[in-house]
Amino acid sequence: MKKLIVLQSIVLTSLIVATPVLAQGADVSKVQSFIQNIIAILVTLSGLVATGFFVWGGFGYITSSGNPESLDRSKKTIFYSAIGLAIVLGAFVISNIVAQVATGAFGK
User: Fold this and answer.
1) Cα-atom radius of gyration of the chain, to the nearest Å?
2) Dist CA 75 CA 35 (whole Å)
3) 44: closest CA among 105, 99, 108, 88?
4) What is the tens place of the pLDDT at every residue in 24-42?
5) 47 burial level (CB within 10 Å; 0-12, 13-18, 19+)
6) Where are the domains of the chain?
7) Is the pLDDT of residue 108 over 70?
8) pLDDT attached to residue 94
9) What is the DSSP string of 50-101?
10) Neighbouring C-beta atoms of residue 92, cutoff 10 Å
């Protein structure tokens, strides 16, 4: 019993006397700018890919020579590239909105 009381008093004393350790704050602005730069690069690359698919679909549309299968395939290529571009631009806008809200809420 005495050992338990001595052990508890040593632990309690060490907790009271211990100096607090303060962690260095993370630089959130650097992380945020890094992520925004990555998103901007990905949006640019996806815009280039979508432009390539628009050109590919337009070329197929022009050179289809009335072939309904080729014409339909070209229309689908243009349609799906437009949907992909809209999704990417929407994600870019949403990420910017989230970044602005987070900056307003947390500061910096």
Assistant:
1) 29
2) 35
3) 88
4) 666 667 877 888 899 999 9
5) middle
6) 28-106
7) no
8) 92
9) HHHHHHHHHHHHHTTTT-HHHHHHHHHHHHHHHHHHHHHHHHHHHHHHHHHH
10) 18
